[in-house]
Amino acid sequence: MSLRYEYAVETEDLAKYYVMGPVTVRALDGVSVKIRRSEYLSIMGPSGSGKTTFFNMVGGLDRPTRGKVFIDEVDIASLDAYELAWLRAKKIGYIFQTFNLIPVLTAMENVTLPMVFTGVEREERLRRAREMLTRVGLGERLDHKPGELSGGQQQRVAIARALVNDPVIVLADEPTGNLDLHTGLEIINLLKTLNTEKKVTIINATHDLKMIDVSDRIFWLRDGKIERIETRAEVAVKEVE
Amino acid sequence: MSREEGVKFPLSEAFSFSLESIKRRFGRALVTMASIVLGISFLTFLLTTGRIVSVLYGEGSGVAVQFYQLWMAVIALLICSVGIVNSMLMSVTERYKEIGTMKCLGAMNTHVLEIFLIEALLLGLIGGGIGAVAGWTIATVWQAFTQASPVNIFMVSASLWTEFNTSNPLLLLANPLIGIALSVVIALLAALAPAYIAAKLSPTEALRYEV
Lengths: 241, 211
Ligand SMILES: Nc1ncnc2c1ncn2[C@@H]1O[C@H](COP(=O)(O)OP(=O)(O)OP(=O)(O)O)[C@@H](O)[C@H]1O
Ligand SMILES: [Mg+2]
What we know:
heterodimer; A: 241 residues; alpha/beta; Rossmann fold; 7 helices; 35% helix; globular; B: mainly alpha; 8 helices; 87% helix; elongated; binds adenosine-5'-triphosphate; binds magnesium ion
């Protein structure tokens, strides 16, 4: 992985408005941030503050009303459909609250799928999927379908799937939202370990305060705006006070 | 970004993905296929009966029978099309979330469309094949029993044999083949609209959709 760019993600005055009849919801309203490579970042804020909207815009899953998103210094609005698909396949890994695994595919098949789109050789695909699943602790569950796995195990499959193409960024939207306290903590620690090991940038939208302990920085979002940005040290100091 | 870096989804991958998808959702595939099998077997039954009757009683009688039967066949096809359209629509919409996920993993609109059209093609071929064989067999056996005089049976088999040997072997299979071809066309047309709409959804729209 090259370290040519200091920032994995930059946004410039990013905004998304939803017009619903007479009402305009400003889901995201002028967010300008820079996210460094290999940073572990959490985006926190109350329900409806725009976390998921931010996730969608940065991930190239939806178009902003205004503003720009740069991934590796490329403005993603300038990409054609072909390049955008490549961005999603190769540069970004997605993790969702509801896991979003393909129900009819086994853990192995779910993890190999992104490598189909990036054109990895069949043998290599299987090798890497097995390695990645073993890495997240599911070496014994390769041939299980999502329905045969617990929530925590499904999220591990999703994490393996998100990381198997060695992305620059992993975007997670409430990855622990559907998990109990203990399992949630395991997932948080797994993400942190992978962040350190693979130097992958991790961006987490979350309500989960456990996430603060592993985050390098925290963006506090309110009503679609960045309220404040804190480092872990600053949050810790405040807790002591 | 150079073109070598672009996403790939060769036809062979699309084909095996679609095939697996049918196999593993066999219940759903059966529902879709049931209406195809019924419609096509009825159509083939009518066409084959008309053919046999015209062999037995001469071309003239066959034309009259066939005209009346063709009319019934059209109605049967319309009813079966409604069934197919409905089950295709269901099977696409219940997979919106999967489509959204695939798009996050790098699938392009054309790839999504490909997957669904190949599935429709396979369902059309299999369903149409079963329906055509069933319709043809039932018609032939039925005629053999109801028209059962040795002379008649001899005439039918002799004429089938002649067709097979002299003119064109395909004539013997014409009715089942018409049935299968129609089945594939109807299945593809039925899948086209919902698949096209689904393929064009943005990942967020597709993911938000709850069945
Ligand atoms: N597709 C949409 N159409 C209309 N309004 C939307 C849409 N998506 C989001 N919104 C609105 O935008 C605002 C921000 O929503 P968003 O989903 O980003 O919040 P969130 O911070 O992720 O909340 P939560 O913690 O509950 O997941 C909300 O007021 C929401 O109602
Ligand atoms: Mg959300």
